[in-house]
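Posting this for the archive.
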Amino acid sequence: MKIPRGARIAATGTAYAGRCRLTALTLRSGTTASKVTVRDGGAGGTIVWELSLILTAAAGDQSHSISFPDGLLCATDMHVTVSGTGAEAYVGIGEY
């Protein structure tokens, strides 16, 4: 595995185009309930990990982080969907 990198995602799109591993994920809430979905193989691909936050605090005051020491494999690419007004996700990406 090459040197890890990170990406900030505030919408939907490809976080990394190619084989990689999800090494960490942080979801920061917006003004509504927030959710991040990480897929392998584009928008219709296999779900690798999904995380939801139900809004219980002021906007942006709630977040949750998780790390994956061995990484979760995305064999094709890493596609990330973030939903919830003002929500942001930060993903750690281990390259091959």
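The chain has one domain: 5-95. Strands lie at 5-9, 12-16, 20-28, 34-40, 46-53, 63-74, 78-83, 88-95.
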